[in-house]
Amino acid sequence: MPEKIRLDTEFITLGQFLKLAEVIQSGGMAKWFLSEHQVIINGEQDQRRGRKLRAGDKVQIAGIGEFELTE
C-alpha cells in the first residue's frame, strides 16, 4: 500500500516532493538523488526535479517505496 503524501497546494515539484516525503534531507540533494535513483511517476520514468506533481499522482522510488499524492 503506497504511503500517502498530502498536498496543501495545487502542485509541487518532484524536488520538493522528495524533501516532503523525507527521501532527501535538503532540496539541494534532489539533482544528485535523481541521477542516482530510478523514479517512476504514474508508470513513466522521470528525472526532472521540476516535474509538477498533483493530487492523484503515484511515485515509485526503487529501494525506497511507493507514494500517492492526495489533497
UniProtKB/TrEMBL annotation:
Keyword vocabulary terms for this entry: RNA-binding
Gene Ontology molecular function: any one: RNA binding
Pfam families: S4_2
InterPro entries given in the database record: RNA-bd_S4-rel_YaaA (IPR014330), S4_RNA-bd_sf (IPR036986)
Domain of life: Bacteria
Name this protein carries in UniProt: S4 domain-containing protein YaaA
Species assigned in the record: Alkalihalophilus pseudofirmus
